[in-house]
Fold these 2 entries.
Entry 1:
Amino acid sequence: MAHLSLKGINKIYPNGFHAVHDFDLEIEQGEFICLVGPSGCGKSTTLRMIAGLENISKGDFLINGVRANEMSPREREIAMVFQSYALYPHMSVYDNLAFGLTLQGVDDDVIEEKVTNIAKILGLTDYLDRKPRALSGGQRQRVAVGRAIIRKVGVFLMDEPLSNLDAKQRVTMRSEITDIHRKVGSTTIYVTHDQTEAMTMADRIVVMKDGYIQQVGTPYELYFNPVNMFVAGFIGEPPMNFVRSEVGGGNISVLGSEVDISHIVSDESVKHYEGKPVALGFRPEGITLGRVENSYVFEAEVELTELLGDNTNVYVTAGGNNLILKVDPHDTPRLDDKITFSVPYKNVYLFDGESELVIERK
Ligand code: ATP
């Protein structure tokens, strides 16, 4: 296991493109960190710098307190699984798992013990004689994971390892990977653009945008205390609803209603934002149909409903805005219905309309 320190890490590619800006993060031994963000935000570049596959343009990278910027990938004692995991097609699962150890000249009986053990952890015991073409996508993925973790490494890096799998396999592999992490205990950095993967697997999530870290926190912190509109909109599915407006006399005019913002932010903030743009945010699942106390109440018209089983996504318009509301499937309204819904004050976020930073709640 390893402790990693990333201090002011920057990546400027030879063509001058600045892909990662001042990336600061301390990763504890055995932690499971997910790097998330939209395509092109610099996740893979960051991972590749940690792996030693890209040089670090500026900043310090330390493994267990020792500067590692110039260490080769091998010296870093890091294992990796990538999106495209090439198994050797002519070799059995056993030989694929054993390959790295064979190259290192490890004794055959030690290899056998390790392969047997890894196969047991990964549920591959019955497939050791098979060639990769005779495996399902999920089984192949497990072999790729097994090949990476069979060597004792301090750090385990994964770049979108589940993107080639179908939805069901992804869910299974998600829990398998967290299970393996619990058993093996290596510090793990996992790159994904899928916020659900990050929310379900990570100890802490790093949300990135345009090469900058937006927020670092536990899944709980990011969901309940996002620092800005980007994180609030990125974490959570369907995403948070946002409505922009301007403060006038302590109120904002949103969704056809006048909303008194003093219910959610301090008197100083109400004063500070007078005449300024703000954005109101609430999650689709943060609403209640009908009128509820200590809430903002809105009227809306139903445009579309999607019954998902455990809930229904209701697409509505209110005061010219499109919103998504999550409701109990038994309460699914009909198309074109006029509905009333409430958003309890505790579920409402207010953001600075210019900086897009959250305004502290009272
Ligand atoms: P994705 O989810 O699409 O893989 P990502 O967040 O992993 O995206 P990176 O692959 O790290 O993004 O790329 C970050 C930015 O750096 C992108 O704008 C990309 O075009 C750019 N980039 C990547 N590699 C190079 C390179 N070798 N030279 C110049 N720019 C590059």
Entry 2:
Amino acid sequence: MPLTVLQHPVVDHWMTRLRDRSTPPEQFRVICRRLTQFLVIEATREVPTIVRRVDTPLEPFEGRALDGELVVVPILRAGLGMLDAVTDMLPRVSVGYVGLERDHTTAIARTYYCKLPPVKGRPVLVVDPMLATGGSAEAAIEMLVHEGAGDVRLLAMVAAPEGVKRLQARFPQLPIYTAALDRELNAQKYIMPGLGDFGDRLYGTGGAAEG
Ligand code: PRP
Ligand code: URA
């Protein structure tokens, strides 16, 4: 299924600022929200809408409104950095949470939390800024598929080819949206050139990935 890599000079500008190791957490958070808006716009092109009649100051108008069926699931912790941008743009979205943490030695993700609204038959946006080995996204999407989620989409800030390949093999129908497709994973399974540990940069908790 399609991998969409955003192609936009404004995205490139903010992605470069996000990667820059000198960008402090307070700016990192703002830029993350900004870039997430671009991903949301791209990923929601085909979401269902309903007719909404309103009165302009001059005459009645028949417009469209989002139908409120959407669910967003941030993968904790780093996915929380993308959540506000989604709820700002899609105010009636339901929010579920999946907590996953990669082991620093094996890079294998462990689930420590899961709280989902009903997802059966509903479109779901999974937000996780880093798609590295794909283990975290795979585990979260497995849970959603198990719960009967219909149309699941993944929104990532940076993706590695290894993670994309893994997800495409496991979920051939899964649309993936990313602001950047990077070169490769390093020996520690960090994305290269990447931006380091997203959660640490978002929350100022110190970097395991810094060279
Ligand atoms: C990061 C990131 C992804 C995951 C990606 O989370 O936010 O969830 O790694 O790696 P993968 O594709 O190899 O699974 P991390 O485990 O560092 O936890 P955190 O969000 O709590 O910092
Ligand atoms: N998780 C991160 O935060 N960064 C990476 O490069 C890979 C996984």
